[in-house]
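FORM 12-B: Structure-to-Sequence Request
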């Protein structure tokens, strides 16, 4: 049996805009997904036949690794809320790819896993997916994804994808965040699902009908660069302020909900900054704070579910084989 783990992620800046080549910054969180695989008579997931509709990522990975004729049983244990902007499908894809590769004696290099898992995500998201979630889950730490890193992060690899809008290329880089006074992140789940493919398609439709809305994506791109400068110098107040402004742009794109607004308003007095994280329309908000217990309490008292995580967590790994 092979057991692999991959963490979820929180996007600090740049969700949605990154699909169009703008930069995004994400960090791995302290919760994730474990995948266990073992030989079996047929392909199963949680003892049920592998169904392409229910598990498009896993089905794609099995085919991609040419394993159709080598059936295995897949079991999944997740600490992440599904469909909540915590990158659960990316973590599942990365952990599954690592486990499948390990079982075949192939490369379990995090970069290879990130590249393959990104293609699996794109397949499941109707062809549109940035490498943000999969790269952050695989590499861990703080990851920057951009059309052109231009010195904003240490380059790690390049990702390419054939999307409905044409071929997209991204640089993926890492930022070392080693400061003594790092604030915590608190994620607040609104309780409503967030459907990435649907929200990405909604934004695509919105900007094709209304060029003004495209400016919100461009502004998110600029804010992300400002946020990255603040992040790299450990200017946490500036990081928080940039998060707040990013949230206004995401809200203007119709990605917030009344419940997300309630949670964000509740945590603002105790936070450096707060915003939606991930695709929105439900799912999670995040706060950057030196008072994580208080922020978590405010989220829970407002009807959400809170997760406290340090800002800098390790990436995916094989746990046993
Ligand atoms: O799937 P989520 O909710 O973690 O969001 C991913 C971030 C998006 O920018 C909305 C989509 C993408 O592929 O980058």
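FORM 12-B RESPONSE
SEQUENCE OUT:
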């Amino acid at each position: 049996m092979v057991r692999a783990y991959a963490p979820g992620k929180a996007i600090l800046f740049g969700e949605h805009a990154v699909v169009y080549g703008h930069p995004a910054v994400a960090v791995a969180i302290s919760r994730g997904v474990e995948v266990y695989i073992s030989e079996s008579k047929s392909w199963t997931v949680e003892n049920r036949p592998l169904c392409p509709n229910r598990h498009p990522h896993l089905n794609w990975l099995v085919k991609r690794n040419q394993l159709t004729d080598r059936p295995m049983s897949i079991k999944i244990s997740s600490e992440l809320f599904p469909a909540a902007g915590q990158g659960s499908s990316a973590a599942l894809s990365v952990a599954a790819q690592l486990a499948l590769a390990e079982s075949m004696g192939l490369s379990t290099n995090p970069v290879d896993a990130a590249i393959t898992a990104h293609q699996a995500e794109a397949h499941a998201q109707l062809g549109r997916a940035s490498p943000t979630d999969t790269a952050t889950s695989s590499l861990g730490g703080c990851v920057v994804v951009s059309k052109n890193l231009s010195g904003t992060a240490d380059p790690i690899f390049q990702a390419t994808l054939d999307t409905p809008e044409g071929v997209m290329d991204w640089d993926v880089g890492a930022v070392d965040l080693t400061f003594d006074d790092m604030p915590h992140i608190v994620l607040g789940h609104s309780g409503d699902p967030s459907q990435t493919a649907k929200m990405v398609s909604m934004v695509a439709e919105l900007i094709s009908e209304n060029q003004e809305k495209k400016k919100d994506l461009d502004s998110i791109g600029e804010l992300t660069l400002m946020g990255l400068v603040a992040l790299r110098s450990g200017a946490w107040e500036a990081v928080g302020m940039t998060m707040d402004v990013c949230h206004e742009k995401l809200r203007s794109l119709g990605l917030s909900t009344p419940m997300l607004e309630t949670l964000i308003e509740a945590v603002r007095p105790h936070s450096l900054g707060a915003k939606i994280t991930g695709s929105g329309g439900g799912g999670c908000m995040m706060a950057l704070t030196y008072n994580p217990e208080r922020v978590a309490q405010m989220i829970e008292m407002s009807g959400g579910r809170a997760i406290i995580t340090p800002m800098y967590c390790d990436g995916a790994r094989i746990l046993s084989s």
